[in-house]
Amino acid sequence: MVNFLKTVEKAKWRIMGIKNVVGVGVGYKHVGMERTQQKAIIIFVTKKEDLGNLSREELVPFKINGLETDVIEVGDIRFLEEDRKKHVRPAQPGMSVGHYRVTAGTFGAMVRDRSTGEPLILSNNHILANGTDGKDGRSAPGDLIFQPGEYDGGTKADRIATLIRFIPIQKGEAPASCPIANGVARIANMLVHTIRPNYDLKFFKREGVANHVDCAVARPLSPDLISDEILGIGKVQGIIDAKPGMKVKKSGRTTGITSGVVTAIGTTMQVKMDDNNNAYFSNQVICDMKSQGGDSGSLVLTEGNKAVGLLFAGSEKVTVFNPIQTVLDKLNVELL
């Protein structure tokens, strides 16, 4: 192997100057689709050409310094992360997507409606439906979904789907309706206004409602606009319940492919929706997998590509996701 590496080091720039060549290294020769045990100088090309279409200078030598070569077609090599935030058709899970009034999140998975059989885009309520409780007017079925999301440059020209349904998110606090509480607030505000005229005190009632999922689905404008193959991961190979210690991974719009281990299941968690609102979620899964803003909506899978959850929240130290079976049942869909 040493002789091969030395030869490649000496000849690499000459080889790279040949038409269509994008890389050169050392490996094992392929015959058809099978890898052999014969060492060879591997030459990577964007596209294999018929020998009759190439000049003598454009031919890859069969041997270099007496060492066998092998040509492998690989297409154009580019930074994979770039495509996550670009307009791509068909769009893959793992790419940027979002309601037209949302910055951007992640296209989690391609699912099938159990009633109609039509393919749909799965992500979070707060990505596809603008974090609505169903009564606040933040979104409505039929709203446009962009790919990429608005923050990544998405416009009406990038519309890919329309919102079809969502599970409402109930906030953890609501303005107090108690007459006594409101009376106390009025008296308190008279005192506050003598010091800070532009400030008001308000009482809020903590709701006992806990959410179970943050999810929604959108109908693509055409079925051929989306793919079921998760970017960088591949196709889903079934579903499984999360367990403490289970290794998991995801493909997200912001941090790409990351992995971690499940820390806890059956968790009730307070989640900040924004600076003014919290929501409570029950029966959630916590893991130490890295994620950041924009990764919301990512499908969480095992090492064997079995789906375990739908990512929707996190901090600098943990990631939180809904159990996938609950998501599918609530939305009446199934994974493809």
Automatic annotation (TrEMBL):
Family annotation (InterPro entries): Peptidase_S1_PA, Peptidase_S1_PA_chymotrypsin
Protein known as: Serine protease
Highest classification ranks of the organism: Bacteria, Bacillati, Bacillota, Clostridia, Eubacteriales
